[in-house]
Design brief:
Blueprint lengths: L3 H7 L4 E6 L2 H11 L9 H6 L12 H9 L25 E10 L8 E16 L2 E14 L4 E11 L1
Antiparallel strand pairs: 1-3, 2-5, 3-4, 4-5
Length: 160
């Protein structure tokens, strides 16, 4: 059962920001993950496959999530590198990544204006072998500015 402070933190309005995807963003990400498909680098190749411009690798949403909410001044970062705004009001020693599920509705394409919205969905407390665990479920919606879905990500952070 979440505490009052945790319930209040969970019930805050979703965070949202709009980012523009550039061909350079896509190329940088593709290079970083070792993707070599011309679709990510060559607009003519992408157009031949039906895209308006270069198209991103499927996991490109990760760079948007981290760029949208974790690029804050150092004094607003928790010691483990996460924005303090994304740390729940609970005592913990370690934060870990849990399950991630993604539905990709279509590829991200250079020129997209993407609204990234983070919703804190729920908290679940469980007893683990090494002590109490708190699971925080987040939902990230990646849409066009007009609301058309591009991707939906469900991400769990585990606090011990």
């Amino acid at each position: 059962m979440p505490t009052d402070a945790l319930q209040h933190w969970l019930s805050q309005e979703p965070k949202s920001t709009v980012l523009t995807v550039s061909p350079e963003d896509i190329a940088r990400f593709a290079i970083a993950i070792g993707a070599s498909d011309p679709l990510h680098f060559d607009a003519a190749s992408a157009r031949a496959q039906g895209y308006a411009d270069v198209a991103a690798p499927d996991t490109f949403y990760l760079s948007l999530r981290t760029g949208a909410f974790n690029l804050v001044p150092r004094e607003l970062l928790h010691d483990e590198g996460t924005s303090q705004a994304d740390i729940p009001p609970i005592g913990y020693q370690t934060a870990m990544a849990g399950q991630t599920r993604v539905t990709l509705h279509r590829r991200f394409v250079a020129g997209d204006r993407v609204r990234v919205t983070c919703t804190r969905e729920k908290a679940t407390r469980k007893q683990g072998r090494s002590g109490a665990l708190t699971f925080i479920d987040f939902r990230y919606d990646y849409t066009t500015e007009s609301g058309d879905p591009i991707a939906t990500e469900y991400f769990t952070r585990i606090f011990r």
